[in-house]
Amino acid sequence: MLLTHHHFDHTRDLITLGANASYWQGQIEVYALQQTFDVLIPCLLDGKMYVNFREYPSKEEPSLLFRTVEPYEEITIRGYKALALPVKHSAPTVGYHIVSPLGKSLFYTGDTTIGIFDCWQHISPQLLITEVSGPNRFEDRLKGVGHLSAQLLKEELIQFKQLKGYLPRVIVIHIGSPYEQQIKEEVVQVAEELEADISLGYEDMKIVL
Ligand SMILES: [Zn+2]
Ligand SMILES: [Zn+2]
Asked: Fewest Cβ atoms closer than 10 Å to its Cβ: which of 141, 142, 181, 204?
């Protein structure tokens, strides 16, 4: 499991997954920045909220194994290369560039706002998974709390194309549910304007590269 940052909507299932792993006598390796663990451990895994799955069922073989990642340092996880790249958000956040043993690649930005450009120097993904948290009319507010609108995403993609000469396939997630229909319309418009393959992600989506 790769964690981008500590925010609750991105980490709340860690406890449930830890519980499931203990039922099945398995172990889950959890990768994140040290700053992410520094918030997570005292808040979610203090042993008071629920079981501390870093030490349960035993200290020797706990359900959750925490592994610290360093930005810009490529690691290999079961044959997949993973590179954590810092992105701008309201908490310390990294996106992950993943390359499969066959060379298929994706970049998941995590929660982020304008300024993804810094990442493009390091990677050329086939697939970009990113966010659009709200509609264009909330652009200023979204920027202020470290998120993207469809229009802001468009500007990031234009920068990508100028640098790389192509656009990756894009899947948009982290959609503010009250605005889903409007976000969809605004994302479709960006896709048409850029002649890009951009679609909205959904639960249980399977993606073949
Ligand atoms: Zn967040
Ligand atoms: Zn979030």
From this structure: 204
Task: Give the containing element (helix H, strand E) for 38.
Answer: helix 34-44
Q: Is the pTM of this model over 0.85?
A: yes
Q: How far is the CA of 165 from the centre of ligand 1 (A)?
A: 30
Q: For ligand 1, a single-atom ion, which residues have Cβ within 5 Å?
A: 7, 111
Distance 142 CA to ligand 2 centre (A): 12
Q: Ligand 1 center to residue 58 CA distance, Å? A: 31
Q: How many whole angstroms separate alpha carbon 204 and alpha carbon 21?
A: 20
Alpha-carbon dihedral sign for residues 80, 85, 89, 93: positive
Longest dimension (CA), the chain: 55
CA of 86 from ligand 1 middle (Å) equals 13
Sign of the dihedral through C-alpha 139, 143, 144, 145: positive
Q: Any idea which ligand is nearest the CA of 146?
A: 1
Cα torsion angle, 142, 143, 146, 149, sign: positive
Tens-level pLDDT at each residue, the chain (209 residues): 999 999 999 999 999 999 999 999 999 999 999 999 999 999 999 999 999 999 999 999 999 999 999 999 999 999 999 999 999 999 999 999 999 999 999 999 999 999 999 999 999 999 999 999 999 999 999 999 999 999 999 999 999 999 999 999 999 999 999 999 999 999 999 999 999 999 999 999 999 99
What is the number of the ligand closest to the CA of 132? Answer: 2
